[in-house]
Design a protein that fits this description.
heterodimer; A: alpha/beta; Rossmann fold; eight-stranded mixed β-sheet; 20 helices; about 30% helix; B: mainly alpha; MetI-like fold; 11 helices; elongated
Chain lengths: ~625, ~290
């Protein structure tokens, strides 16, 4: 829709936009970018237009394949010339970027326009100290002496709130955490005092508390420098927090532009409404005891049908299907030629919980908190240092070899990345039937029949069995992985960030699928996730992990409505909420790093005690 | 399952099967197709040698010793009056066979060692790899010559010697690939499904480590042909009176200045075959690597 309208400026009369429209810093008109595919030009971005005023933030939001990143790369002219073609007009302060020479464009990049990327881990050169890398950007664009550069770099590092900036000038990228590296990237981007900052998914790879800090930082810096920001993201929560105006992109076209407030509350395009309906909102589950399906949205009308209620599947009367007692996993750290023990990463420390049939227990926490290692330890994918794990009456820690393989019929795992968890050189049919055949549960014909039935159960067609994984989208692959896990009729499924890598609408569908399977098959889920909003939606109970230990565990409603541990509260406060009213919100969180659970040799774990807040709701006493 | 609506764009348009896709990518690469044509021609020549050769390759003719190329003998004759063109055609059999068979031996010996070593890891891997390193420290040709001399001069023994000398390279490459593939999530997924170790090694690790091994094979064929030539040159490969390109070069060296055609044509045949296999190998590498 509104192909023509989308390009018209002045749709920003909304309450929140900066009222007087100064001359725009960046003005994009009729941007069409095509890629060369098999000797044909295929447009991937069609007729996109927008303006960004000084000090304004415009967000481009869309799912994978919507063309949002290609739009930003087109503005920077970072696409390969031989295989791409950019048409239309991109004006920066009345200068037409598309007609500049390569040499002139080089000065614009990193001079007038700076860019920060998703992966702070790979955007820095590992063999130079970070101070030197920033200084290089300064010397290229500003012609200043080395001593001046050093002083300026220190000032910039302080500006992006890196603690103890002067001392960290000579440190290397590996000595910085992900969040700190993203601060360095921002400092580098600011070095040339750009008029426009393009931020392409700058917080997607970061933990939620770190994401909150980086968003705060970008907002503060924008106020200080009066810089325009183009923010590319898939996360509606982030959009709501940062942007004045928003463009919604879908399959290469702008489906809607407007003030962020209008988009969120008065979205006109059905796709916008469907996208928003699929976003889980933290706090939307108040006063509900059971999980809830996501609403199913009709794309044609944008109307959401109220989600079907789920029945209570938890078999509390029976003995738990999974019982974990004092599980401990440590990874030794050795150094030097003689591989002397230096200490150990206490990845999982004295973790206990139980899981009932038909129940979903969520393990939440940030990277390095040990939630994934817990899941992998109780399946014996890594060898725990101690503790007891009883699955369906079998003590897993005492099993070896063939008997350990047998226990895998009861407990199965779904992995995070559906692009990595399927063998690329094995057909879908073979992949799904394989567990059944490998465990000798029946003939090939029986396996095929069962696989066909399961593929239908996960809303795929049985004819897909002849095809290979690369022919499927991420959501379809995750369904294949689920069907495969179900081939052995497991009682427990460990879902390790199983929906984290999926687009928001697909995420909602896969969550609904998991809930439906729980209804029909009475599955117990150990749902490992960093996404608080999804966890709130799907789980019966929640355990919050920090530095390898459970700090709080209890019924979902109790933990979310009445968080007791300071870390739980911090985690919940950091989640971006898709409500534009919070746009000017600042968390004022200090620039902290997530601590490491590394302990030196001879470290004795502190004995822990838990306090019962309400029935089944325990919090660690610190 | 109620009708969940796919509101995101569907995945990429249905791609053709993997094999068809690889073939298409391969055919688009002109150098690779040229390599395939060259190799294919030599294979056909080897197969149909009796039909193509104008003369008997081992029939001597004392009246036509070291004749220069002419209408009767396109590539001239050698020191026993044999037709060089016919000998090159028959020699393709020995040379191509030496190339292919020795690489098959190297593959069959080296790859399982490398995969098991990489998969098992730990002390076992360390010990195996140090032994492999020791083998690799010996220059390839020296080892092949020593082995061939030990086994006795014949084409079969030359192929075994070349195969065993090449095996450490395959073991090392297979181990490296195994280490890369081993950490992939689908390996852990298969393990957590309770897939048996043998299935894991063959259907998961081997098939995913295969493309670089295949490419290495085509390159090794070229090396093996040259190695057979070198062994034949020393009298350790194809035995007289039968021809291989290497043994032809060996005898031609005595008459380099008087009868240069005796060495030029076998040299050109070796050059073209090696070039063909190299182009083919490069092309396969690019066609099998989707990240290109």
């Amino acid at each position: 829709m509104t192909r023509g309208e989308a390009a018209v400026p002045g749709m920003t009369a909304g309450a929140q936009a900066p009222a007087p429209r100064a001359a725009p810093v960046l003005s994009v008109r009729g941007l069409t970018t095509s890629f060369r595919v098999d000797d044909r030009w295929v447009p991937v971005v069609r007729n996109v237009g927008f303006d960004i005023a000084p000090g304004e933030t415009v967000a481009i939001v869309g799912e994978s394949g919507s063309g949002k990143s290609v739009t930003s790369l087109s503005i920077m002219r970072l696409l390969q010339k031989e295989t791409s073609r950019i048409e239309g007009s991109i004006r920066l302060d009345e200068r037409e970027l598309l007609s500049l020479s390569d040499e002139e464009m080089r000065h614009v990049r990193g001079g007038d326009i700076a860019m920060i990327f998703q992966e702070p881990m790979t955007s820095l050169n590992p063999i130079f100290p970070i101070g030197k890398q920033i200084a290089e950007a300064l010397v290229v664009h500003r012609r200043i002496s080395a001593a001046e550069a050093r002083a300026e770099v220190t000032r910039l590092l302080e500006k992006v709130r890196i603690p103890n900036a002067a001392a960290r000038f000579d440190e290397y990228p590996h000595q910085f955490s992900g969040g700190m590296r993203q601060r360095v990237m921002i400092a580098m981007a600011l070095a040339s005092r750009p008029k426009l900052l393009i931020a392409d998914e700058p917080t997607t790879a970061l933990d939620v508390t770190i994401q909150g800090q980086i968003l705060d930082l970008i907002k503060s810096l924008q106020d200080e420098e009066n810089m325009a920001v183009l923010f590319i993201t898939h996360d509606m929560g982030v959009v709501a927090e940062v942007s004045d105006r928003t463009l919604v992109m879908y399959r290469g076209e702008t489906v809607e532009t407007g003030t962020t407030d209008d988009i969120f509350h008065r979205g006109r395009h059905p796709y916008t409404r469907a996208l928003l309906a699929a976003v889980p909102r933290l706090g939307s589950m108040k006063d509900r005891a059971l999980p809830q399906r996501f609403p199913v949205v009709d794309v044609a009308t944008g109307e959401a049908s109220p989600p079907a209620e789920v029945a209570d599947t938890v078999a509390r009367a029976k003995a738990p299907i999974l019982d974990v007692r004092a599980l401990t996993t440590r990874f030794e750290v050795r150094e030097g030629i003689f591989r002397r023990r230096k200490g150990a990463i206490h990845a999982v420390e004295n973790v206990s919980f139980s899981l009932f049939e038909g129940e979903t227990l969520a393990l939440v926490g940030e990277s390095g908190c040990g939630k994934s290692t817990t899941g992998r330890s109780l399946m014996r994918l890594v060898q725990p240092a101690g503790g007891d794990v009883v699955i369906d009456g079998h003590d897993v820690m005492k099993l070896e070899g063939a008997r350990l393989r047998t226990i895998r019929r009861s407990i199965q795992m779904i992995f995070q990345d559906p692009f990595a968890s399927l063998n690329p050189r094995m057909s879908v049919g073979r992949a799904v039937t394989e567990p059944f055949i490998e465990h000798g549960l029946g003939t090939r014909a029986q396996a095929r029949d069962k696989a066909a039935a399961l593929l239908e159960k996960v809303s795929l067609s049985p004819d897909m069995m002849r095809r290979f994984p690369h022919e499927f989208s991420g959501g379809q692959r995750q369904r294949i992985a689920i069907a495969r896990a179900l081939m052995l009729d497991p009682k427990i499924i460990v879902a390790d960030e199983a929906v984290s890598a999926l687009d928001v609408s697909i995420k909602a569908q896969v969550c609904n699928l998991l809930l439906d399977l729980q209804q029909t098959l009475n599955l117990a889920y150990l749902f490992i996730s960093h996404d608080m909003a999804v966890v709130e939606r799907v789980s019966h109970r929640v355990a919050v992990m920090y530095l390898g230990e459970i700090v709080e565990i209890g019924p979902r409603a109790a933990v979310f409505d009445n968080p007791q541990h300071s870390y739980t509260r911090k985690l919940m406060a950091a989640v971006p909420v898709p409500a534009p009213a919070r746009r000017r919100l600042r968390r004022n969180a200090a620039a902290e790093e997530i601590r490491s659970p590394f302990r030196p040799v001879g470290y004795e774990p502190t004995p822990r005690a838990y306090r019962e807040v309400s029935a089944g709701h325990f919090v660690r006493i610190d | 399952m109620s009708a969940t609506v796919d509101i995101a764009p569907p995945g990429p348009a249905r791609a053709p099967g993997q094999i068809a896709w690889i073939v298409r990518r391969f055919l688009r690469n002109k150098a690779a197709v040229a390599g395939l044509i060259v190799v294919g021609l030599f294979v056909l020549v080897a197969i149909f040698a009796p039909l193509l050769a104008p003369y008997d390759p081992i029939k001597t003719n004392w009246s036509e010793i070291r004749h220069a190329p002419s209408a009767a003998h396109w590539f001239g004759t050698d020191e026993l009056g044999r037709d060089i063109f016919s000998r090159i055609i028959y020699g393709a059999r020995a040379s191509l066979m030496a190339g292919v068979v020795s690489v098959v031996i190297a593959f069959v010996v080296g790859v399982p060692i490398g995969i098991v070593s990489g998969y098992v890891g730990g002390v076992f891997d360390t010990v195996v790899m140090r032994v492999i390193d020791a083998f690799l420290a010996i220059p390839f040709l020296i080892m092949a010559i020593a082995l061939a001399a030990f086994l006795g001069p014949s084409l079969t023994n030359a192929m075994i010697a070349i195969g065993i000398s090449t095996a450490p390279i395959f073991a090392r490459l297979a181990r490296g690939q195994t280490l890369v593939v081993k950490v992939e999530e689908y390996i852990e997924a298969a393990y957590s499904l309770g897939v048996r170790p043998m299935t894991l090694l063959t259907r998961y690790i081997f098939v995913n480590a295969f493309p670089p091994l295949l490419v290495q094979s085509t390159l090794a064929i070229a090396t093996a042909i040259i190695a057979e030539a070198a062994l034949a040159f020393l009298g350790l490969g194809q035995q007289p009176p039968n021809a291989s390109w290497g043994s032809m070069l060996n005898t031609a060296r005595m008459a380099l200045s008087q009868a240069p055609w005796m060495s030029i044509y076998p040299g050109v045949a070796i050059f073209l075959t090696v070039l063909g296999f190299n182009l083919l190998g490069d092309g396969l590498h690019d066609a099998l690597d989707p990240k290109d």
